[in-house]
Amino acid sequence: MTKALAGHVAEIAADLRAQILAGGAPGERARRLHAEEQVGDDFEVWTDLLARRAAVLWVLKSVYVRVLEDRGLLRPGRILDREAQQLFERLAPNLGESAFLSWVWRDLASANGGLPELFATQPAEVAVPSAARSRALLDFWRKTDADTGFRWSFATEIFAGELMGDLYQELDPVVKDRYALCQTPAFVRDFMLARTLEPAIEEFGADDVRVLDPACGSGHFLLDALRRLVEAMAPQHADWPRDKVIDSVLGRVVGIDINDYACALARARMVMTAAELAGVASLAEAARFRPNVYWADGLEQIERDPEVRHEQIDLLEPSLELQVRASLPRPAVRALLRPILKEKFHVVVGNPPYKPEKDDSRKTYHRDKVSKRRRYLSAYGEYSLAAPFTERALQLTKHSGRVGLIVANNFMRRDFGRPLIERVLASVDLELVVDTSHARIQDHGTPTAMLFARCQPPTSLTVRVVMGRRDEGDAPVGAGQGAVWSSIVEWWHKAGFENEFLSVADVPRATLAKYPWSLGGGGAEQLKRRLDEVARRRLGEECADIGRTTVCGGDAVFMLSPGEARRRGACQLVVALAVGEVVRDWAIDPQEFALYPYQSMGGDPTGSDHPAVFRHFWPFRTFLRGRTVFGRTPEQRGKAWYEHLEHYADRLLTPLAIGFAFVATHNHFALDRGGILFNRTSPAIKLAANSTADDHLALVSFLNSSTACFWMKQVFQPRSHAGQKHHPDPERCAYEFTVNGMAQVPIPKNESFRSQLVALGSIADESMRGRGAVLAPNYWAFSLGSRAELASRLEERWKVADHLRQRAIFAQEELDWLSYHLFGLVPTWLRAPAGGSGTLPRGQRAFERALGHRSFVRQGGRLLPPSEGEVETGPTSLPEAYADVTARRQATIASNDDIALIETYLYKRLWRDTEDNVSESVFRERHDRGQLRAWLADRVESVVERAGGPIPIAKMVVALQDDREFLAVSEVLEKRAAFDILRLVSSLVNEAFVPNHALHIYTDSGLKKRAAWEETWRLQRLEDEGQRIENIPVPPKYSQGSRGKSKDFLRNEYWQLRGSLDVPKERFIAFTEMPGRSAGEILYGWAGWTPVERVKALLALDEICEDEGHSLGDRIALLDSAWRLLPDVIRDDPATGARLKAELQALVGPDGPAKVLLDEWKKKFPPPNIRVKGGSPPPSVRADSREGERS
Fold first, then answer.
1. What does the alpha-carbon distance between residue 1076 and residue 1102 come to, in Å, rounded to a whole number?
2. Residue 402 and residue 443: Cα distance in Å, rounded?
3. Where are the domains of the chain?
4. 0.85 cut: is pTM over it?
5. How far, in Å, CA of 388 to CA of 352, rounded?
6. Which of 993, 990, 981 is closest to 1085 using CA atoms?
7. Which DSSP helix (H) or strand (E) runs through 465?
């Protein structure tokens, strides 16, 4: 049912948003609400969220009615019973279904016998859906199955049940993501309330306990608190009527949430649960219950903020307390909440949002100073909302009151957690910390922890900590029955307990008063502490600097491949850029490139007269000028407007650097010998300027060790489980290795073993760099022979690559065991003897022989065996020379707890071809095919480039059909000699072109944005001519329908090639504006033509069309394309531009093509359907059927 209702929500939301954007009364109401809510989102973007909220509220009201009908509380019926609608239609025959439902809601919102808390109009309801949408909703509820007579029934549904929670969480995916909607399962709530509410009742008494959930969602904690307090009070007041007990509890259980429909649902559940507890049987009796659930921001410190004038006036109104909570605007809510929050609470409990704060206005509020102290100390850096919510919970708790929260555990290891740990939690009586990151909790993909504290100074020297050891594997069948959670419930109170899933210990409070927290069970925390104690120095002391070398600040403009840069006239500025994904297993394999507008690495910027600045950067000048870092633009910081936003020149002056992956499953460090830029996802470690390559190799050898990986995984934050749906194994969980944390990596004494570190590091470094070279296209492309020769060379390179990897595995294994000795974990280095093969296959390392070899590839939830998941073309058995040392290593693993802890796949390198969840055989085929296809695309592009003018695909085929190398590569790609060359060339062209004319590229919204960009360019030209232009507007970015934004490109493929700044990255131009051409006859040009070359091509095409008898009206788009290019031509070559302008004016008049002619042309010549994917010929496949396939 939830899924079906979600469809109605989506349709109603689209309807409501259209009304809001159309202006009029709905638009005015929306703008007032936008100002009142003080959100940072642009109004147009925010209206998508508003419309979705209003749609959910509309649908939820229909759910409430259906529940009341089926529970017998609403007679006669309103929705199921058609008589009510028929009566309404007799009274108002022309108003429609939405008016009928509005009448139902108004009737049921009446204070006289209705349930206003459920049905009153809420601020978000700025418009009502169209009659058609409401008709569809009514039909949904009334529809019966033809065979069974079944219809949706709520006869047995209780408002505290899971269905209501599902409705809260799943009705709209955008709202779910925006507000981080996530239910807390009953078994988690039971555990938390047993540690908070139950002892509070014993200490303070059920008559007095006040409870708050500051992020209450659909009210799960509130309902549980309501029931528990009623059960505790009732026996003590046996002479009281039941409803008096319930009223008392409702007055002391308070919920706040920023999501208005969550509040609506929580109120509904509270009212109906109260009615169920009281045993009432009519709406009139239920209406007397008034839950304290408020639509507000739980982080807004209403009790501390000064009262504003209209709130003070409202407080003088005696009726404010009696007004329906659901219909109150924000100012009135604040007025009501102020005295409630000032009184504080005995228990604050909840599951606050895990997501980071992205709203700039709220960030500013959180960081405001109040009485010389930050409003939230924990609102530090890029903080998760769980941090200030934890601080807020403590602010609102009475002295010695209790706080219980389940929060994202990223505060323990990410930088923003330092003030929360050292200044907030260290100052209160933290009693219990439970690591729940290994427990499988429904809908909780983010790793979590539970915190329990009393709002008082610490009373003991230790804190009880439940430390996780490992996941339980697949999700448990029964809720709350998983092995990890069961262990938590059974053993949390038993210090010293340990099993395979967790350890329980009383940890010194002083340890938890320092950032970061390391809660690894099974001895992990103790081993991490030992590594810290043994360390000679920290990495931050060993190196000169750690961090990125550049931030482009406008990646869409700067991130161009060498081919894209060549077409933009900027090939001289291309530099390889290392991103985190390509720093793997000792090597950096750059797949991304950036324009680097500097004269040398770390040098002065390229001059403003450089051709690339003129041709490529100029159209984006206003955008680039508007970029800021720390509130200052490049020019305000004395930089050129086209420079990178952040350029750390000092880190580029020396060539050697160690790059590492910011996000990865394991520690990946690689030595760069110069010429590569490093961004945030792949920071660089820079040693002193006089450091040698051997200095770098010695360091990178240790950083790549399993010991370093162990330490890093104790300190750094794992990423969400949600990103691991295809590979839930903890060994495949990615971590974030931050720069600040990396500076603390312990470095052991290694002087006596430095030469061994360098020698082994050299083997691994050279092997994996060599492997990258073997797998690059140049390995097979430099000498293309026949199909058989090429296929053989492709197969041969994988054998070479596998051999090189086996050399690196051998070196890595030696380094791992050397690092154990350097840290004193083993008394001697268990070293392999000299004279062996110097290679080691996967599966033959000591721990793999002891514990088993795994592939970590899953299909259908099944872990593939190595024989299916991996490909090994070389030897697979243990070299005989290494049998003895391997046996001794296995014995050490069995006898040494510290070594056993590290020697697992969790900390040992996986050595996989790819981190994608595919078998290596599939990956290798994809890898080869991708390179072959890219080579073929380059070859087709070279044909078009050399053609000297636009040509059809058929002429490309003629030029290629006798190309021996092209045919050989094509035959290997297609796996047969008799392939369809027309089909292949068509697919290569059609995945890399964009039409020439704007009317065939953009939607109406895109055309408006394009006009804004053209106006900006006009003003830039005036500025270039010496005119003083104030505040040239930054034109809007393009979008393609995400997050409620407009869809600006006619096809997703154009969007994928151009992006939000419309940067031309296509290989080909399609002259679709040329009349009289079918899809197969369209002419294509090279996207690297200069504006002069393109105008000349267009004029030549116009002559052809004129000779063919086409009228000026049919040719007008060709001439318009040329006209729009004239400013660029004039800027490049004024004389040629003037001549071409005169020629065009003779054809279309002095002011260019008339708009009326273009409008008529647009109607007559819609964009042709020529998009073909996957090698299919143009006539056989509809382009729009495959739209969006590219990722």
1. 12
2. 26
3. 2-157, 545-686, 751-856+872-905, 993-1186
4. no
5. 10
6. 993
7. strand 462-468
The tens digit of pLDDT for each residue in 585-638 reads 999 999 999 999 999 999 999 999 999 998 999 999 999 999 999 889 999 999
760 pLDDT tier (thresholds 50, 70, 90): very high
In angstroms, the CA 69 to CA 279 distance is 17
Q: What does the alpha-carbon distance between residue 315 and residue 313 come to, in Å, rounded to a whole number?
A: 5
Q: Residue 570 and residue 595: Cα distance in Å, rounded?
A: 7
**Tens of pLDDT along 1083-1124?**
999 999 999 999 999 999 999 999 999 999 999 999 999 999
Best mean pLDDT range from 81-90, 114-123, 1088-1097:
1088-1097
Residue of 972, 1026, 449, 532 lying closest to 745 (CA atoms): 532
∠ CA 1133-1137-1140, rounded to 5°: 145
For 395-405, write each residue's pLDDT tens digit: 999 999 999 99
Contact 171, 59 (CB under 8 A): yes
Does residue 795 carry a pLDDT above 90?
Answer: yes
For the chain, give the number of residues.
Answer: 1191
Q: What is the gyration radius of the CA atoms in the chain, in angstroms? A: 34
**Helix and strand totals (H; E) in the chain:** 48, 33
Contact 1044, 914 (CB under 8 A): no
Residue 122: which of 317, 283, 298, 268 has the closest Cα?
268
pLDDT of residue 1188: 31
Distance CA 411, CA 380 (A): 11
- Give pairs for 979-986: CB < 8 Å, separation 24+: 980/1175, 980/1177, 981/957, 982/953, 982/954, 982/957, 982/1177, 983/1175, 983/1176, 983/1177, 984/936, 984/1175, 985/940, 985/953, 985/956, 985/957, 985/960, 986/953, 986/1172, 986/1175, 986/1176, 986/1177, 986/1178
Quote the longest CA-to-CA distance of the chain. Answer: 103
**Contact in structure between 428 and 394 (CB atoms under 8 Å):** yes
Chain position carrying tokens 């709520």: 154
